[in-house]
Amino acid sequence: MSMPLVTIIVLSYNHASFLEECLKSVFSQSYVNVEVIIVDDFSNDDSQSTITSFLEINDIEVQCIFNKENLGNCKSFNKALELSSGDFIIDLAADDVLFPDSVSKKVSFFESQDLYCNMIYSDVEYIDEHSKSLGIYSKLKNIVDFPSGEIFEEILSRHFICPPSVMFRSESLKEIGGYDELLAYEDFDVWLRLSKAGTVEFQNEVTIRRRISSASLSNQFQGERRMEMLNSTLLICQRIENELNEDSEKNALVKRVKFELRFAMRQSQKGIVAEYIKILKRLGEESFIHKVLSCFY
Question: Which of 3, 66, 89, 138 has the fewest CB atoms within 10 Å, i.e. is most exposed?
């Protein structure tokens, strides 16, 4: 097997309690050709001192970026992406944990694909705040179909990729400009753009441990953060509507919009619901619109 350089971008925000376990997993990889870039997004806990102390104690020299203000995931990641030299990129939250052979297995699988493959993804083990296993993602979510290949429509229409499992081809990610800094979250948008430009392949293995904690993104969907994410999803759907040509792509967007519309309804976001209704109207979904309106009036 060849030894392409892999860049692991570790993104930290108030992850002091989990940083040591995460960093140990990064620097204990069986795969040796790894470049690590750590970004702390202006944490208000002990994250920065924890990072500095860990590196000093273990005599490790890597690139570190300590933001002077909170920039969010997209801008923080892009700062590291600009400095990266790897052939492949892993975006690793500082509360998640790699298995010792995670990078080796990912590289081996990626290298078995052709150059048209822009990203790979895999199954994931969920863990709690104490690193106790909560189960395997595919079983917990009851997902039996993980598609591979030209799967733009699948990504557009439904949820099935667990974000921390992804590895990107660096060249492809840089060609599309990295993460969209106008958005509150990165994954849905970048997956769409990469899957539109090439293939996405599923690696049928569990390659990473994702932490589910009170501080994790999945539990921060409230207040201002909730509105930012809802608006970002709406913006992605509005953009993609203007890029679709095939009926099958339009049908995929209809499925996604119906899902997001129902979610916005449960969040009592009538303004966002109204914008999704406009999209459905343009896509000819009049009967569904009547059902939605009947829930309000």
Answer: 3
Q: What residue segments make up the domains of the chain, in order of their start? A: 6-215, 223-296
100-143: per-residue pLDDT in tens? Answer: 999 999 999 999 999 999 999 999 999 999 999 999 999 999 99
**0.90 surpassed by pTM:** yes
**Nearest partner of 228 among 96, 41, 236, 190, judged by Cα:** 236
Topology of domain 6-215, CATH: Spore Coat Polysaccharide Biosynthesis Protein SpsA; Chain A (3.90.550)
d(CA 58, CA 28): 12
153-156: which pairs have CB atoms within 8 A and are 24 or more residues apart? 153/248, 153/249, 153/251, 153/252, 154/252, 155/188, 155/191, 155/192, 155/195, 155/200, 156/192, 156/240, 156/249, 156/252, 156/253, 156/255, 156/256
Query: Which tens digit of pLDDT belongs to each residue from 39-61?
Result: 999 999 999 999 999 999 999 99
C-alpha span between 243 and 289 (Å, rounded): 23
Q: What's the per-residue H, E or C state across the chain?
A: CCCCCEEEEEEECCCHHHHHHHHHHHCCCCCCCEEEEEEECCCCCCHHHHHHHHHHHCCCCCEEEECCCCCCHHHHHHHHHHHCCCCEEEEEECCCEECCCHHHHHHHHHHCCCCCEEEEEEEEEEECCCCCEEEEHHHHCCCCCCCCECCHHHHHHCCCCCHHHCEEEHHHHHHCCCCCCCCCCCHHHHHHHHHHHCEEEEEEEEEEEEECCCCCHHHCCCHHHHHHHHHHHHHHHHHHHCCCCCHHHHHHHHHHHHHHHHHHHHCCCHHHHHHHHHHHHHCCCHHHHHHHHHHHC
State the Cα–Cα distance between residues 273 and 123, nearest whole angstrom: 32
